[in-house]
Amino acid sequence: MKAGLWIGAMIAAALIAIGGLSYLYVRARQAEAPQCNVCRRPIPLQTAFAVLVGRREVWYCCPRCWVSAQRAGKSDYRRPMATDYTSREMFPAERCIYVEGSDLMPCCAPDMTIGNAGVPAVQCFDRCFPSVVAFASPEEALRFSKEHGGAILSFQTLADEARKP
């Protein structure tokens, strides 16, 4: 009987230790999650955007935050890379097609909602609104736009917007 209690106590202690270590591991991984250089939110895998500034790679949660950074005067960048929403692979931003203002808002704050008529309702300012989603394929961008709404843009259009005061 004592041996059974001892084994049970050891199993319980091991489970508690494993649970505690798992919790610490998850917390540490969350702390390491990359954050947007502008809004400091976690970077969604399907909308990540990156540029080189000097020798440092700077990451944004979406092309919209990159535009915000450029408008704030951070214009010394090279090699812009956008994530294709469909494949989640990075491509040169100049080669991508963008959909702006769709009903998909992957990195907006929780207070962003879709109103009764399917129109985004903004409860407060959010840098990531309207959403900008990149596609490597023009056909994928068009299909997404037909399903989710939004306007088709080129990278040049976004870059021009980023230069406006």
User: What would you report as the Rg, rounded to the nearest angstrom?
Assistant: 22 Å
Cα shape: elongated
Structural class: alpha+beta
The order of strands across the largest sheet is 2-1-3-4
Order of helices and strands: HEEHEEEEEEHEH
Structure description:
The protein is of the alpha+beta class and 165 residues long. The protein has helices spanning 2-32, 63-71, 138-148, 155-163; strands at residues 49-53, 56-60, 78-83, 90-92, 97-100, 112-114, 120-122, 132-135, 151-154. The protein has a four-stranded antiparallel β-sheet with strand order 2-1-3-4. The longest helix has 31 residues, at 2-32.
Feature tags:
165 residues; alpha+beta; 2 domains; four-stranded antiparallel β-sheet; three-stranded antiparallel β-sheet; elongated
How are the secondary structure elements laid out?
Blueprint: H1 2-32, E1 49-53, E2 56-60, H2 63-71, E3 78-83, E4 90-92, E5 97-100, E6 112-114, E7 120-122, E8 132-135, H3 138-148, E9 151-154, H4 155-163
Antiparallel strand pairs: 1-2, 1-3, 3-4, 5-8, 5-9, 6-7
Helix pairs in contact: 2-4
Task: Give a brief outline of the structure.
This protein has helices spanning 2-32, 63-71, 138-148, 155-163, and strands at residues 49-53, 56-60, 78-83, 90-92, 97-100, 112-114, 120-122, 132-135, 151-154. By secondary structure, the protein is an alpha+beta fold.
